[in-house]
Amino acid sequence: MFSWSIRPIAELVLRNASHKPATRLYPRERRTPFPRTRGQIAFRIDDCDFCTICAHKCPTQAIVVHRTEKTWAIDHGRCILCNNCIENCPNGCISLRNDPHPPLRAHEILTFRKDHAPPPTPQPVAVAPPK
Ligand code: SF4
Ligand code: SF4
């Protein structure tokens, strides 16, 4: 004959009722990232000289650098957060943030562009009147 007692279940219910829930109400309540979490790549264009080292060191070709156009682009969908670009950048332009990148809804490449010097203002040219 199968016999069981309600006592263990009652204890479990009471224990759970008096504790905080084991899960969070994500995304309303988010865990603070651990200090060494590899979350996402951050880039600062100010000191970048477009040497392309980071692009060559990236094992997944997530970074594309154009010297002449002065652009630096990253495909977060390809980045595996290996840290290679950060360790090899001579100017310290790349860093690792510990907050995770928001979910990618589409394939997008984030491009940074260093503004070129503005073109010189055109000067009026004296034109001789027609004879
Ligand atoms: S290695 Fe650094 S300085 Fe060189 S292109 Fe990459 S981010 Fe810019
Ligand atoms: S962390 Fe690694 S995979 Fe991501 S961009 Fe840098 S070198 Fe490429």
Describe this structure in words.
- The chain has a domain of 77 residues: Alpha-Beta Plaits, CATH 3.30.70.3270.
- It starts with 6 loop residues before the first helix and ends in an 18-residue tail after the last strand.
- It is an alpha+beta fold.
- It has a 3-stranded antiparallel β-sheet with strand order 2-3-5.
- Strand 2 and strand 3 form a beta hairpin.
- Helices cover 17% and strands 15% of the residues.
- The model has no long low-confidence stretch (mean pLDDT 86).
- Bound molecules: iron/sulfur cluster (2 copies).
Main attributes?
4Fe4S_Fe_S_CS, metal-binding, iron, single chain, binds iron/sulfur cluster, about 130 residues, 3 helices, alpha+beta, 4 iron, 4 sulfur cluster binding, membrane, about 15% helix, Alpha-Beta Plaits, 3-stranded antiparallel beta sheet
Helix and strand arrangement:
Layout: H1 7-18, E1 40-43, H2 53-57, E2 63-66, E3 71-74, H3 84-88, E4 94-97, E5 110-113
Antiparallel strand pairs: 1-4, 2-3, 3-5
This protein binds iron/sulfur cluster (SF4) (2 copies).
The site of one iron/sulfur cluster has 15 residues, from helix 3.
